[in-house]
């Protein structure tokens, strides 16, 4: 237990922040154990957990306790997102997407892919 | 013969793209090592000089897409759980086909949606909405207040159709 706690804190020191859904995979522990340890670490004031939505799934962003938590950023506009994914070419984002449940009609990544393609 | 070689390299490129998208560069390197036998994350980590956490992350990603599997063994003395990994090279085709079919299905759904709707885009590019939504917003962007303008999606529809043809070609190539 102590090893995992320390491993989490070290990882945070190095990376600055990490998503809970990535953390347990990296540490090779199961997700419920990970969430238990994180809750405890938060109680002890060693970390902060910020609820975020990634690819439509709720998870926590884990940051060291000393990090100032900024106000939630406003959703970026389509144009901003399109600039960000400029590098994405080739096949649509669905290829290799690991989301189990998705609605292609609502998927922002697919929307941006289509918009980009139509502007080429 | 030449045609066949080209087909093989195209499939290889496709596989590389899939692995890189799912498991990143490290995933691709691990997969390219041609490991036929079982291995542990520590072995890979020391062989590649990459941090063990990065190796695990890549291996779990490969597992999620179906290109790796593992068995867990608990060491009774230390209580540590060790993972023995194996790469599923024999599943390459199956995984590629599944991903291509899924992409095709999603694009077909998107095409239907684009064909059936009329869209409006904010002048500043904040949002894209359909006609009903644009009406509700009174043709003003709810974010920045600019006009919502009619979006000609002919090109988007064309691009999706073209991509669908491309996907069908790839699916034929692999099946």
- First-residue to last-residue Cα separation of chain B: 18 Å
The unreliable regions of chain A are none
Cα end-to-end separation of chain A? 53 Å
What fraction of the residues of chain B are assigned to beta strands by DSSP? 5-15%
Sheet of most strands of chain B: 3 strands, antiparallel
Using the CA coordinates, give the radius of gyration of chain A: 17 Å
Fraction of residues in helix of chain A = 40-55%
Question: In short, what is this structure?
Answer:
Chain A has helices spanning 2-15, 20-27, 31-43, 78-84, 108-119, and strands at residues 18-19, 47-54, 57-64. Chain A has 120 residues and is an alpha+beta fold. Classes of the chains: A alpha+beta (120), B alpha+beta (175).
Provide key terms for this protein.
heterodimer; A: alpha+beta; 3-stranded antiparallel β-sheet; 5 helices; 3 strands; about 45% helix; about 15% strand; B: about 180 residues; alpha+beta; elongated
Write up this protein.
A 3-stranded antiparallel β-sheet of chain A has the order 1-3-2. The model of chain A has no long low-confidence stretch (mean pLDDT 82). The longest helix of chain A is centred in the N-terminal third of the chain and has 14 residues, at 2-15. Chain A has helices spanning 2-15, 20-27, 31-43, 78-84, 108-119; strands at residues 18-19, 47-54, 57-64. With 120 residues, chain A is α+β, with helices and mostly antiparallel strands. Chain B is an alpha+beta fold and 175 residues long. Helices cover 60% and strands 14% of the residues of chain B. Chain B is built from 6 helices and 5 strands, in the order αααββαββαβα. Chain B has helices at residues 2-32, 41-48, 52-65, 92-116, 131-136, 154-174, and strands at residues 68-74, 81-87, 119-122, 128-130, 148-151. In chain B, the strands form 2 sheets. Chain B has a 3-stranded antiparallel β-sheet. Chain B has a two-stranded antiparallel sheet with strand order 1-2. In chain B, helix 1 packs across helix 3 and helix 4 runs antiparallel to helix 6. The two termini of chain B are 18 Å apart. Classes of the chains: A alpha+beta (120), B alpha+beta (175).
């Amino acid at each position: 237990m102590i090893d995992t706690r320390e491993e989490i804190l070290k990882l945070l020191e190095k990376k600055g922040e990490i998503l809970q859904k990535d953390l347990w995979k990296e540490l090779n522990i199961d997700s419920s154990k990970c969430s238990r340890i994180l809750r405890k670490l938060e109680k002890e004031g060693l970390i902060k957990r910020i609820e975020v939505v990634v690819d439509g799934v709720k998870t926590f962003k884990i940051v060291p306790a000393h990090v100032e938590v900024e106000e939630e950023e406003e959703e970026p506009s389509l144009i901003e997102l399109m600039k960000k994914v400029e590098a994405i070419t080739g096949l649509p984002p669905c290829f290799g997407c690991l989301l189990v449940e998705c609605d292609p009609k609502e998927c922002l990544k697919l929307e941006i892919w289509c918009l980009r393609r139509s502007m080429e | 013969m030449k045609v066949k070689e080209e087909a093989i390299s195209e499939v290889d490129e496709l596989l590389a793209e899939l692995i890189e998208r799912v498991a990143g560069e490290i995933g691709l390197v691990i997969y390219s090592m041609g490991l036929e036998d079982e291995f542990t994350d520590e072995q890979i980590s020391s062989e590649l000089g990459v941090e063990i956490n990065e190796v695990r992350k890549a291996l779990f990603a490969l597992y999620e897409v179906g290109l790796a599997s593992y068995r867990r063994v608990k060491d009774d003395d230390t209580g540590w759980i060790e993972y023995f990994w194996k790469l599923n090279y024999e599943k390459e085709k199956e995984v590629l086909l599944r991903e291509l079919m899924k992409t095709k299905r999603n694009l077909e759904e998107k095409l239907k949606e684009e064909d059936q709707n009329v869209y409006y885009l904010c002048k500043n590019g904040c949002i894209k909405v359909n006609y009903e939504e644009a009406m509700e917003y009174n043709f003003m962007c709810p974010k920045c207040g600019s006009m919502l303008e009619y979006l000609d999606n002919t090109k988007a529809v064309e691009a999706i159709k073209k991509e669908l043809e491309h996907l069908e070609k790839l699916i034929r190539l692999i099946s």
